[in-house]
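DATA SHEET
Item: assembly model
Revision: 1
Owner: S.N.
Input lines:
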Amino acid sequence: MPELPEVETTRRGIDAVATGHTLTGMVVHESRMRWPIPKALPDLIKGQTVRACLRRGKYILIEFDTGTVLIHLGMSGSLRSVMQGELLRKHDHVEWLFKHATLRLHDPRRFGSVLWHPRDQGPIEQHPLLAKLGIEPFDPAFNAKYLHDGLAGRSMSIKQALLAGEIVVGAGNIYASESLFRARIHPKTKASRVSLTRCARLALAIRETLTDALESGGSTLRDYVNATGEPGAYFTLHAAVYEREGQPCRVCATPIKRIVQGQRATYFCPSCQKV
Ligand SMILES: [Zn+2]
């Protein structure tokens, strides 16, 4: 599943291709995504200039003068710029056409979405899908105290509290395991019991883990491709614990353990990470 670094990598690629350019057309080959793609959307944005490509959580926001296109890559989506004349692949559902380039949304499982938010319906931050998202991990306001306050009163495990994305976005399944390892916090620790000192370590660990992933172009999904089609290689090279069950911890050589929390796999070092 594309996580925040993959989405940010994609956003940067799309921004370089689309921002400042006029959309000459939008073609929907398959409108049945997680929610149907609005039928009127191609006519609404055709001929408009892309003002900015932003990101909030895992949503890519393409801003036009009259509103914003929200794109989510779902479980298996990718958005990339293709060469003119490149044949349509199976599962290429949507195309955005520019004079110099074409962007294609590819999504075999169709859990992704393409939605429209007209400007006259208020700021995009107030969109129901965005309004409840936690703070961005690179926001300067995301610090030990913010995290500690957010975790207070939550009886779930720290892993599940991170995964919910209501306190901070970006610590999805892979990055939650990796960040907790880096902060030496056991994933089963009750969220409300993580001390301020450990929250300081964890906030830093989340930022560092995501920074590392971004620097290597992001990649969690094996067949993931970024905006120009290059596959990322972060986790084949750098994962400390994720999908390393039974392999020696890179710090202490204890075999990495796998448990299931909320139906999602968690990987950790039983020796380095304390409850
Ligand atoms: Zn260890």
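QC remark: Residues 249, 251-252, 254, 269, 271-272 surround zinc ion (CB under 6 Å).
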